[in-house]
């Protein structure tokens, strides 16, 4: 007769009860006596409890209390004078004792997995005196295990991965099931593993739970995931054992076992010839069944007539080959290109090279389409020269442009007037001949940079641009000018022949051999015959020598400031605060004579005292004079280096002694402000009135 689970449990309980009763009977039969001992003045024998360890079957399902065992003392004569009491774990709540007989019963269902044993204490008392007749003794009630727990996979469900194409027996993952039953008692906790789903691809070791591959050459590209069901059964897998299951999801990971392949043997693309350099012409892609790093590509042009015109690179996100232009396309020069392109895996797996080459090739044909292009000039820049004395309408030069398209449309020329605002030049619309339209002045503009436009007659929107640089050649059409207006001062005791002033001239023209100036005194009767001029024919001339000495009376002019004379002191002065005898401003004025350094080994030939006036003169003249004075100082400076050197001066030109106090514009500016009111402010503002006023007595009139 085959027992069910419930019937089997009842059977085990009956067996346990039988064992317990057998143990009690054996305990009672094996009782022994000991020597007596004395307590409280009267002789007593040492207690002799008769029991062994008690066992109770777990999961008792009966309606009556479960008998556990019996306590008995040798002192008990069976006359009812002894009573038994129970204390400790579960006393009264789980375990009860018959105080007359010592029988122990369990009143509740026990679970070994919750508590495997209980420790209790028993004592026999005199019923009349309620005093112990034996010392208290401790005993244990152990819960007897039955197979009432199935194995459980505490870490399930599982996920694992194994490379595709792995050999048979490759370890995938280990699963573990636990059983709460007593592993030291019977086979209730002895588990074996088996595979319920996943064959024939995988297997599991019965004792360890290690899952392994069971078939070779499993291909991820064919099937990349498998669901396994693993069972764990106790009682060593025998009939009647309890079992539990878990699922294992196994994913085949990719290996590089598939070469790249182009879906087509050839491709064709059309591109306009006007496509800019670095533009994308086409995208092609070789298919690869692998994924991730195993599908990474490398593309290259291995053959064809467009090796220098095109290049190919890889898009790392899409693994496409991107064909781009390296040089400009020209339909008139070449109408098509053919490229042989190879795609290969970046990292090939040597284990699978025997499957074939891990690369593939295809042909790409690129057709260049004609585009209407603007005219092209024969030269990027046309340099031309013309004299500033040329007549209006004279020819300067010619430009030429043509239509690069096959239609070769006629070209018409014009000048971009944004580059010739004054309209100095004209161009013949048909021939491209450039002529003068106005008189030219080199001193106004020495070089004209103009842009010439060339338009197709049939399509005026197609415009090409050429650049012309016209240099104006100089002629001698400007008279020399004095570098500045001179006001020379001379001491009354100056010696005849003494040089008192140098005069220079400038010329707006620029002759190729440099300027050659000639100086002479005019025959104007106002000239004083006490002075003469020496023409040195150089850029700067030494002029005005004393002919004879003339004594003048010592009469002071009221308007003349005596402090402008140089006074020699035999004692130390009061420093900068001593201004009684001389004008401090003279020491700070750039225009006052500087004490030039003289070379000790050369006798100075000339000494001069000059003070230029504050008249309006060109800025270039002021700076030229400033640099010339510095040059003279360097020529006579014994400490100057014996070679040419570059000197930098932070000179901004002439100005007020006290520097600028307002935003008054100079006389050379285009300011139209009226400063005549300065004359009404008194003698202190006379100088400003002379400099900026417009009256007849103005210094600059």
TrEMBL record:
<dbReference type="InterPro" id="IPR027397">
    <property type="entry name" value="Catenin-bd_sf"/>
</dbReference>
<dbReference type="GO" id="GO:0005509">
    <property type="term" value="F:calcium ion binding"/>
</dbReference>
<keyword id="KW-0677">Repeat</keyword>
<feature type="signal peptide">
    <location>
        <begin position="1"/>
        <end position="27"/>
    </location>
</feature>
<dbReference type="GO" id="GO:0007156">
    <property type="term" value="P:homophilic cell adhesion via plasma membrane adhesion molecules"/>
</dbReference>
<keyword id="KW-0106">Calcium</keyword>
<dbReference type="Pfam" id="PF00028">
    <property type="entry name" value="Cadherin"/>
</dbReference>
<dbReference type="Pfam" id="PF01049">
    <property type="entry name" value="CADH_Y-type_LIR"/>
</dbReference>
<dbReference type="InterPro" id="IPR015919">
    <property type="entry name" value="Cadherin-like_sf"/>
</dbReference>
<dbReference type="InterPro" id="IPR002126">
    <property type="entry name" value="Cadherin-like_dom"/>
</dbReference>
<dbReference type="GO" id="GO:0008013">
    <property type="term" value="F:beta-catenin binding"/>
</dbReference>
<keyword id="KW-0325">Glycoprotein</keyword>
<dbReference type="GO" id="GO:0045296">
    <property type="term" value="F:cadherin binding"/>
</dbReference>
<keyword id="KW-0130">Cell adhesion</keyword>
<keyword id="KW-0479">Metal-binding</keyword>
<feature type="domain" description="Cadherin">
    <location>
        <begin position="482"/>
        <end position="614"/>
    </location>
</feature>
<protein>
    <submittedName>
        <fullName>Cadherin-7</fullName>
    </submittedName>
</protein>
<dbReference type="GO" id="GO:0044331">
    <property type="term" value="P:cell-cell adhesion mediated by cadherin"/>
</dbReference>
<dbReference type="InterPro" id="IPR020894">
    <property type="entry name" value="Cadherin_CS"/>
</dbReference>
<feature type="domain" description="Cadherin">
    <location>
        <begin position="154"/>
        <end position="262"/>
    </location>
</feature>
<keyword id="KW-1133">Transmembrane helix</keyword>
<dbReference type="GO" id="GO:0016342">
    <property type="term" value="C:catenin complex"/>
</dbReference>
<keyword id="KW-0165">Cleavage on pair of basic residues</keyword>
<dbReference type="GO" id="GO:0005912">
    <property type="term" value="C:adherens junction"/>
</dbReference>
<keyword id="KW-1003">Cell membrane</keyword>
<dbReference type="GO" id="GO:0016339">
    <property type="term" value="P:calcium-dependent cell-cell adhesion via plasma membrane cell adhesion molecules"/>
</dbReference>
<comment type="function">
    <text>Cadherins are calcium-dependent cell adhesion proteins.</text>
</comment>
<dbReference type="GO" id="GO:0034332">
    <property type="term" value="P:adherens junction organization"/>
</dbReference>
<feature type="domain" description="Cadherin">
    <location>
        <begin position="73"/>
        <end position="153"/>
    </location>
</feature>
<feature type="domain" description="Cadherin">
    <location>
        <begin position="378"/>
        <end position="482"/>
    </location>
</feature>
<dbReference type="GO" id="GO:0007043">
    <property type="term" value="P:cell-cell junction assembly"/>
</dbReference>
<keyword id="KW-0812">Transmembrane</keyword>
<dbReference type="GO" id="GO:0016477">
    <property type="term" value="P:cell migration"/>
</dbReference>
<dbReference type="GO" id="GO:0000902">
    <property type="term" value="P:cell morphogenesis"/>
</dbReference>
<dbReference type="InterPro" id="IPR039808">
    <property type="entry name" value="Cadherin"/>
</dbReference>
<dbReference type="InterPro" id="IPR000233">
    <property type="entry name" value="Cadherin_Y-type_LIR"/>
</dbReference>
<keyword id="KW-0472">Membrane</keyword>
<feature type="domain" description="Cadherin">
    <location>
        <begin position="263"/>
        <end position="377"/>
    </location>
</feature>
<keyword id="KW-0732">Signal</keyword>
